[in-house]
Amino acid sequence: MFARVRSLGLFGIGGYEVSAEISLSGGLPRFDVVGLPDAAVREARERVRASVKNIGMDFPVSVVTVNLAPADRRKAGTVYDLPILLGILVASGQVKSPPQDAAFVGELSLSGEVRSVRGALPMALAAEKAGIRSLFVPAANAAEAAYAEGLSVYPLRHVRDLLAHLSGEAPIAPQSPPSQADGDRDAPDFSEVKGQENVKRALEVAAAGGHNVLMVGPPGSGKSMLAKRLPSILPDMSREETMESTGIWSVRGLTDEAHPILRRRPFRSPHHTLSAAAMAGGLSGQGSSALLQPGEVSLAHNGVLFLDELPEFSRSVLEVMRQPLEDGTVTVSRAMGTAVYPSRFMLVCAMNPCKCGWYGQPGGRCRCTEKAVRDYHARISGPLLDRIDIIVEVPSLPYDDLRRRADAEPSSAIKARVDAAREAQRKRFSSETMSNARMGPREMDRWCSLSAESEALMREAFSSLGLTARSHDRILRVARTIADLDGAEDISPVHLAEAVQYRTYDFFSAENSEI
After folding, report:
1. Distance CA 386, CA 380 (A)
2. Which fold has domain 2-167?
3. Helix, strand, coil distribution of the chain in percent, nearest 5
4. How far apart are CA 53 and CA 48, in angstroms?
5. Which of 102, 137, 211, 445 would disulfide-bridge 389, Cβ 3.0–4.6 Å?
6. Crossing angle for the helix pair 452-465 and 493-501, nearest 10 degrees?
């Protein structure tokens, strides 16, 4: 007796089709699972056996062989519990074969309840490509999986629900896809930030062009507060971006029934003690249960990666970000395989001017030597600093600004200007996701031409600031964004001067020094 049930699996952040082939034969009772299963898949034997008995069905007294095909790809996780159970019931003649265009995923409890799994959206997208039209998933994952188009998603809370649906006794209504409308109305808003108008302007420019930012200032000046409000002025995510980001978060188990999709751009703020593997992505778990998982640079895809206390991160962690910042992807190679994860994000960093944080502040609170300050800044490599478009000082807030009662400009007003600038870029590049920060040499030659006056200003800045070719290009990209915010067709000297200003912060200027 033989049965085949379609299912799905995960590798990295992508799904692929898996066939659960079940064979029942004579001999001493035995239950084997083959097809490169990990420990979680092998343990499905006990979950399936108990579930079959507890729903009132008969577990066959025979040799039960389960092959998960393709057999040369490693199978991981608990998603195969449901298809294995259904295949055994079909092979033993207790249930009719399901439709050929139906697939099943889900973890089982011992009582037959269907529990949630990771990666529902990537698997649903893989099901769509494989020609599957009906996908049966745990109820907790149904809304997320339904975001994929081209197939009907059926939510399951218990195995009995599935059996009743397949027999026609109690058909299950397909799950409706979730809305992408803005969710959290209580998200941090720029109206709560008093003062710091120069920093708000810099973040507005960064949001309008997708530029990387470094904020430098003493403790308590508002660097983290400002960074956390940056997502509130970023453009709304397109459907494509929502699919990409939600898929990554789903694989990491960060979505749930209450929050099936990402409605706001991701904001990730890892602690400085994380490892290079946690930043780039790597293995999660140990031994045969280890899985390739995306890291922080991928979880921040289409959003913001905020690194507070930048010099406190280890050099290896910071250098990991070079490839993602340049290419928008990160390649993770391990013994079990190689995965390429998307990692296009805005890098927002914050740091104190010295180890104690008070260098350059009045009152003589800082006791750091100039060598100690230089050593502190030397923790950030030149190549990484060269990949940051905007460097802005965040000074201590004056008392009058702190006590001011009137609210500052709200995020909605800033976002309106950012959206207008992004709309100009969409028309310019004929792309929903292209921004000024991602312009290549060809686009820059066409859209960043300079007048004679601007050319003279750029030449002087290049020589006086000791700019590299990369920092030269980044200044032009920022200037293009400033022009877009002004609604200007061409880059003027005023736009270029503001862009150059964002590269001229001097950590050791005489007027800042108090030591």
Report:
1. 10
2. Ribosomal Protein S5; domain 2 (3.30.230)
3. 40, 20, 40
4. 9
5. 211
6. 20
pLDDT for the residue numbered 312: 93
In this structure, how many other beta carbons lie within 10 angstroms of the beta carbon of residue 325? 21
Mean pLDDT of 28-42: 93
**DSSP string covering 500-515:** HHTT---TT-TTT---
Where does 303-410 have alpha helices with state H? Answer: 315-320, 322-327, 370-377, 382-386, 399-402
Q: In terms of C-beta density within 10 A (0-12 exposed, 13-18 middle, 19 or more buried), how is residue 269 classed? A: middle
Q: What is the pLDDT of residue 465?
A: 83
Does residue 286 have a pLDDT over 60? no
Residues of the chain with CATH 3.30.230.10: 2-167
| Residue 281 · residue 332 · CB < 8 Å | yes
How far from the centroid of its chain's Cα atoms is residue 137's Cα? Answer: 23
> Alpha carbon 346 to chain centroid distance?
11
**Is the pLDDT reported for residue 108 higher than 60?**
yes
CA gap 417, 403 in Å, rounded: 28
* E strand or H helix that includes residue 294: strand 291-294
DSSP category for residue 216: E
Are 211 and 438 spatial neighbours (Cβ–Cβ below 8 Å)? no
Residue found by looking up tokens 């296009």 in the block: 344
Cβ-proximal residues to 461 (8 Å cutoff; 6+ apart), any chain: 467, 475, 500, 503
Rounded alpha-carbon distances, angstroms, from residue 156 to 106, 133, 218, 242, 298: 9, 16, 53, 25, 30
- Cα distance between residue 352 and residue 50, in whole Å: 58
- In the predicted structure, residue 112 carries a pLDDT above the cut 50: yes
User: Which uninterrupted H or E stretch holds 337?
Assistant: strand 337-342
Burial of 55-83, coded b for 16+ CB within 10 Å and e otherwise, reads bebebbebebbbbbeeeeebbbbbbbbbb
- Structure confidence at residue 114 as a pLDDT band (50, 70, 90): very high
User: Measuring CA to CA, which residue among 96, 99, 115 is closest to residue 107?
Assistant: 115
Helix 411-429 with 469-485: angle, nearest 10 deg: 110
Instruction: Give me 383's structure tokens.
Output: 């190549």
Contact in structure between 176 and 402 (CB atoms under 8 Å): no
Q: Given this model, what pLDDT does residue 288 score?
A: 46
Q: In the chain, where does the domain assigned CATH 3.40.50.300 lie?
A: 190-432
* CATH, domain range 190-432: 3.40.50.300
